[in-house]
Write a structure and sequence with these properties.
Largest sheet: 3 strands, mixed
Strand order of the largest sheet: 1-2-3
Number of helices: 8
Strand content: 5-15%
Helix content: 55-70%
Shape: elongated
Number of strands: 3
């Protein structure tokens, strides 16, 4: 849920500010991992560096997309621009797919003994392991902060990015394990762990898709039976034969519902019933934009009342 009284412009600014802070932290993490990766030529560390670099790159893209999504409804986008934010989450999945492919390709190549274009590097030591482990502490702070702000601002983009960053914790742990394995004379552990890292990244992408795809394809935003029950609970509403709903990236549910009323009712009374249904449905769902269509029916047999045409 949004913070009380938080308008769209303020929400957008708050999300961008959060992303800017996280971008700074992610750049620090990338720099540390890059140094360790270059010194050791460890494939798992390179994979961890790539994922952190994608985190930073996604932050930059997200800041731009959130600015676009902040624009209110207009004639070209009557439901607002929130789906641009959802598209940002999909972009994260695209970058995850690239990193998965590269890690699997590099890992398999090393396992098969292929000539990988990567220097021999130095034998990893305690310094490299400690530097790499320190980035996990930064990731813990980022995940905690971004998840908290994502829930406060009802931002799927922040929550999706937090889920991706959470995967960095395991990836970093695997990278540290790879350094230790190489240090003690188990070089094959590096490509194996690199492939495991790729699987972790793929799982993070799947979790993001489960949340964002339903929004993009306009999946039902609420149980139609719940909406129907709220509508018919209003005295004077006979039925609610047609119900449609969808949701946007901010969690707002758009509802279209058709209600039947006594055809003999005055127009003003029918309008009051429509307003009452809007309130009842909104109250039931918590956050909703409800549109009600009134269908007059014959009071005796329940058939639709058709106006005579000239």
């Amino acid at each position: 849920m949004h913070q009380p009284g938080l308008v769209q412009a303020d929400r957008s600014a708050a999300i961008r500010h959060t992303l800017a802070l996280i971008l700074v932290l992610n750049v620090i993490v990338v720099a540390v991992k890059l140094v360790v990766g270059i010194r050791t030529s460890n494939l798992t560390v390179i994979g961890a560096t790539l994922e952190s670099f994608l985190d930073a790159m996604n932050n930059v893209i997200a800041i731009v997309l959130v600015a676009v999504a902040a624009h209110g409804p207009d004639e070209g986008h009557p439901y607002g621009h929130d789906k641009f934010e959802t598209m940002g989450a999909i972009a994260i999945v695209g970058f995850l797919s690239i990193s998965c492919f590269e890690l699997i390709r590099g890992g398999v190549a090393r396992l098969l003994g292929a000539n990988v274009t990567m220097g021999a590097g130095e034998l990893p030591g305690v310094t490299e392991a400690v530097l790499l482990a320190s980035t996990a502490l930064v990731n813990v702070v980022v995940v905690w902060f971004e998840r908290r702000r994502g829930r406060e601002l009802a931002s799927p983009l922040l929550l999706a990015d937090a889920a991706h960053t959470a995967g960095d914790l395991l990836v970093t742990a695997l990278a540290v394990a790879s350094l230790i394995a190489v240090r003690v004379g188990v070089p094959w552990a590096d490509p194996v762990l690199a492939i495991v890292v790729a699987m972790v990244i793929a799982w993070s992408g799947w979790r993001i898709l489960r949340v964002t795809v339903p929004v993009l394809v306009d999946a039902s935003g609420a149980d139609p039976d719940i909406i129907r029950a709220a509508a018919v609970s209003v005295e004077g509403v006979r039925s609610a034969p047609h119900v449609r709903s969808r949701t946007n990236s901010s969690g707002l549910v758009f509802v279209d519902v058709t209600i039947t009323v006594d055809g003999a009712l005055p127009v003003a009374h029918a309008h009051e019933l429509a307003d009452a249904v809007e309130f009842a449905v909104s109250d039931m769902l918590g956050t909703a934009d409800v549109t009600v269509h009134v269908e007059p029916v014959d009071a005796t047999d329940g058939s639709a009342v058709t106006a005579a045409r000239p």
